[in-house]
Amino acid sequence: MDLKKYESIRPLAPEEVQSAIQFLTSLEPLRAIYEGLKLEQSWDELIQVLNICHSVEDFKLKVSSHWVRHIMRQCCSSVELRGTEHIRTDEAYTYVSNHRDIILDSAFLNVLLADIGAKFPEIAIGDNLMLYPWIEILVKLNGSFLVRRNLQGREVLLAARLLSEYMHDAIAEEKSLWIAQREGRSKDSTDKTQPALLKMLALGAQSRQPQEALKPLHIVPVTCSYEYDPCDYLKAQEMQHKRDIDGFKKSPADDGINMRTGLFGWKGRVSFHIGRPLNELLAQREESSLYDSPEAIASLIDDEIHRNYKLYPINYIALDQLEGKKLGLYDYSTEEEVKTLKYIESRIDLVSLQGELTPDRAFLRQCLLTMYANPLRSMLRVRGSHIVSSEE
């Protein structure tokens, strides 16, 4: 791989790791942030470990994976990985996932894949989240590659082509990758793959035919399911802001709040499901020519993601509330229903709006119920009216 060509977006090369570590550990604000996290390792112990990190893989194994496991223990009741029979641990894949949490979707998956001996995926992350220069250095140290946002004109195509070429070259060198199915998180949990993403992924291939262009990337759909989304009230809050303020856009400070809330908020049970590889799904189609457009391929990926949600009582209760009746899809208890409805009201209580806006509780309740009901709706669309237990 031509490291110089991809210097602006790629993770750090081994020879760059120690200089990056020396820079990061010289920053007093970063030390204060770290100590505020109250992790098991002290700052001085961390420095000792960092001094023996000489690659991105070293940093992931010896440092960041321990941080992620700490979050799993403190903020989740369980975290599981299903569908591992669909991949080989010695092969490289491009994992295309639905997107719930800015940081943890890919971080959790990295650790779970490492636990089964699979390759650590490099992580695609938008440069709009690089709120400070040191964050970009840190995420590149952790094996992330950057997706350039907020470009204009010809810059958009050039950046997309560079990103796609990087991903094709990385897979050719047997490096796994992770990228979200869409730009930004799905606020209402409809989880639709953007055809524009697939068009971008195809740019770096020799073939202009979508299926052939995407084949070398070994795309694998991944479903992430959180029992509780710590940012649910922030997403509902943003929905009311967009409804009531023309041209509303989140600020960098809002992104920071979402990242912190997502990291340290309670998530309950968390599940990741590795789906069947896209190449396999296409091979199973008798008329694969029907899937020769980005839109059709995106629909195929969506079906695999939606089929594999792990559902919890809150998903069924939310749908029943929206429908105004019990559909009988899951036999939840009265206690579970009361707990869920209290949870929804407590999330509305956290909403804080700009200016003189006041929370529209009916609208916010609808938003929150919808984001918890939509995974069930999507699964029912793919599977039919199958009754799905939260213990399946």
From the structure above, extract its key features.
single chain, 392 residues, alpha/beta, seven-stranded mixed beta sheet, 16 helices
The number of helical elements comes to 16
Strand order of the largest sheet: 1-7-6-2-5-3-4
User: Main sheet?
Assistant: 7 strands, mixed
Q: Can you count the beta strands?
A: 7
Strand content: 5-15%
Task: Tell me the structural class.
Answer: alpha/beta
Percent helix, as a range, is 40-55%
Secondary-structure element order, N to C: HHHHEEHEHEHEHHEHHEHHHHH
Oligomer state equals single chain
- Large-scale geometry: globular
Report the mean per-residue pLDDT as an integer. 94
Distance between the termini: 44 Å
Weakly predicted, low-confidence segments = none
Over all CA atoms, what is the radius of gyration?
21 Å
Briefly, what is this?
Helix content is 51%, strand content 10%. It is α/β, with parallel strands linked by helices and 392 residues long.
Q: What does the model show?
A:
The protein has 392 residues and is of the alpha/beta class. The protein is built from 16 helices and 7 strands. The protein has helices at residues 14-25, 28-36, 43-50, 56-75, 104-115, 133-141, 154-172, 195-202, 210-214, 232-244, 252-264, 278-283, 294-307, 313-323, 334-349, 361-383, and strands at residues 76-82, 94-97, 122-126, 144-147, 177-180, 219-226, 268-274. It starts with 13 loop residues before the first helix and ends in a 9-residue tail after the last helix. The relative contact order is 0.12. The mean pLDDT is 94.
